[in-house]
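Action item from last meeting closed. Structure (206 res):
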């Protein structure tokens, strides 16, 4: 994890590749279906990893309650899960063609995630179980916006596939919009799972 000195403490950057595979981005969701089939091993691992991450996060809330700090090792597990699942998400929705790594650590990959380790964590916001419920409630506006933007991002990716078929490239504007939606969702998850106590911004910008 690397700490940022300015801006929001958790960042995500997706590099737009050029060109992209016409087959792997074939229109009418055929390319997405192919990618989903290829990503099945990731889905299986992430299913169990998600369970482990939730247990680790729950135990970490007790550590935060008594120490005011998110144990580094446990924090790394949560960050690693979010990195892995977001890598797969970006691959499936055609933001890049490179197959996602089976790794929780930073890789030479199209998606770059930087998370600043929280030196202190709020005991109230991270109170066991209750803190999670509180954060879900105050995140309702974000969850609504992300759901709406997620549908829009899917539509953009759907039409972008036709552009890739004819030009070999994901249109820059559409790629930026879909990437920004992914970033927004990542920041919501980072706040939800105690990677930061700073409320996520209502913004598509980096």
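Sequence:
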């Amino acid at each position: 994890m690397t700490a940022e000195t300015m801006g929001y403490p958790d960042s995500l950057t997706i590099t737009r590749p050029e060109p992209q595979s016409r087959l792997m981005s074939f229109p009418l969701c055929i390319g997405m279906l192919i990618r989903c089939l290829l990503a099945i091993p990731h889905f299986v691992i992430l299913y169990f990893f998600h369970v482990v991450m939730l247990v680790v996060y729950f135990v970490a809330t007790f550590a935060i309650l008594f120490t005011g700090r998110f144990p580094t090792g446990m924090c790394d597990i949560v960050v690693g899960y979010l990195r892995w699942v977001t890598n797969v998400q970006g691959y499936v929705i055609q933001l890049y063609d490179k197959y996602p790594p089976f790794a929780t650590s930073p890789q030479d990959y199209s998606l770059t995630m930087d998370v600043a380790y929280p030196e202190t964590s709020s005991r109230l916001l991270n109170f066991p179980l209750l803190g999670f419920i509180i954060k879900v409630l105050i995140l309702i506006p974000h969850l609504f916006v992300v759901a709406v933007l997620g549908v829009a991002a899917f539509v953009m990716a759907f039409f972008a596939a036709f552009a890739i078929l004819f030009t070999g490239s994901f249109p820059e504007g559409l790629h930026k919009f879909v990437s920004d939606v992914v970033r927004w969702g990542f920041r919501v998850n980072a706040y939800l799972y105690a990677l930061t106590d700073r409320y996520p911004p209502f913004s598509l910008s980096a």
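Note appended to the action item: Residues 1-6 have pLDDT under 50 and may be disordered.
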